[in-house]
What we know:
It is elongated, with a radius of gyration of 19 Å. The protein is mainly alpha-helical. It has one domain. The mean pLDDT is about 95.
Amino acid sequence: MTEKTKQEEAVVTNLADAGCDNELIEQFMDLLKTGRKEAGVSLLAKHRRFLLDCYHADQKRIDCLDYLIYKMNQNQ
């Protein structure tokens, strides 16, 4: 078993904080270790798009609730 460098640990921590699961983190780290940085960046960009889509869906739900609260307060 190889020991992770501090830099690798920092990258893993950052990925976990960004919502990446263990499988994605392992995929990304393997790509980096094999010199496939561009593929790693592409993988992260794909995950970023996924997170952004989730954010937009949540924002729409929040907007619906805000509208309902607004309408209910108007009728008081």
